[in-house]
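tool_call: predict_structure(chain=1)
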Amino acid sequence: MENFNQTLPKRFFLLGLSTIPHVQVIGFLLFLVMYIMTLVGNCLLLITVRTSPTLHTPMYFFLSNLSFIDISLSSTVAPVILINTLSIDTSISVGACVLQMFCYLVLAVAECVLLAIMAYDRFVAICRPLHYSSIMNIRFCIILALIPWIVGFINASIQVPLTWRLPFCRTHHVNHFFCEVPAFLRLSCIDPWINEIAMYVAAVSIAMCSFVLTLISYVYIISSILRIHSSRGRHAVFSTCFSHLTVVSLYYGTLLSIYLHPPSSHSAEKDKIASFLYTVATPMLNPIIYSIRNKDVKNGIIRNNKKIFIALSMPMSPLRPN
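tool_result:
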């Protein structure tokens, strides 16, 4: 334990996306634009669902949960890289690093499980329409919404203590843009085999299982779509399913590419790209693919904008004299 205290520094230094100045500028602008789009898109969805009674359904309840997770996940990572790119001091305290690691693990795993739950919701809606309201009742929806957070919290409570029990004596410079577990395993001066086993078990039991369950749900959905007589209806639903599967595959694929390989065999640059895709790109795409393209959401946004426009255009009543 004494040796561990000697090898644990007070601060780590995040090397960021790149050490090349013009790449840093491009990366900063890209992160900034995508982060703003993430906040705007997801906040717009949350407000629209909250203010539109027609959207108070299980599907939009889960989409609202997804938007909240996406805002939180992106906000856990993006501000750090934006500040570090502008700042000369790119160090982060151990406490801040532990907190960031814990939060992103909770949120990333919660999104994994929630995507599978959302696919199940669509499966029930399309394949069991007559039983949908009885199956997806309020109580069951709340239980389903809590499961991702419970799984995420349990996973983070295992992974984070295991990571910080390691002695980091190789270097205190982290070749990454945030405190992600695999990047820290590469800094350990002992073999982190326990950490790797825990990481693989979590990746298979959570991410891989969620991905498989999502695919199974969409297989049943697509088989039901094939029985639709209207070719126009088939095309519309196929287009929606393809968009959903593209984003889902991007999220699960990048996550599994990091956590199903030994950290020693990873390229730091490839890990950065994969981490960027699942922490910043996917949260930005989710509200566009899942919600804003939806006609009901579009109508809700238009109605809200009309209400705001009418409220702003109304003349203010003159003050009455006492």
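agent: Residues 243 and 289 are 6 Å apart (CA to CA). Proceeding to next step.
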